[in-house]
Amino acid sequence: MKQMLAWAAGAAGAILIAIGAWLAFVYSGVYDVAASREHSALTEWTLETISERSIARRAGDLPAPLPSDEASLLHGLEHYRAMCAMCHGAPGVDRNELAEGLTPRPPRLQRAAAGWTDAELFWITKHGIKSTGMPAFGVTHDDESLLQIVALVRRLPDMTAEEYAELVGALEVSDTPGHDHAPGTLPHVHAPASGSR
Known about the structure:
The protein is mostly helical. Helix content is about 55%, strand content about 0%. It has helices spanning about 1-30, 40-60, 70-85, 85-90, 95-100, 110, 120-125, 145-155, 160-175. It is elongated, with a radius of gyration of 23 Å. The N and C termini lie far apart (about 55 Å).
């Protein structure tokens, strides 16, 4: 019994010391939070791992299949250009100055999208990621619009700069008053298998 009490007291003491050390670190101001400096390798690994595991745990299933029709692709492009391209870039389009000053730097979705499932991309787009600059677009957009964005993002890895520019041109033409977009006139872009990671 004495041995168990001694062990419990030792464990409680170790926990209190760890809490005290953590609070001392937090209040010391030693950790540099300047966005002009990268996180340490350990901090970056910790934050990325927490984020990846959290998203994988919560993503679940898509509320509906990703749309593949041309109108949805254009709607997804419209939202992507307005809200995403400035930080994530696009084929032939670089990120803007705002994104270059963020830490962590937003990933280029033309490359990074392949690392996420459709459901994970949807969850990220809808709920955002804390302390990264990635907002929760579910606050301002319905699921249909978010699925259109994800459908566009899913195509980015296989899209050339020329194909992206053609899509942008088709979007601008379709926004012209009195113009009805004819089916089959969008550039042909192969969509990867749904749910690929």
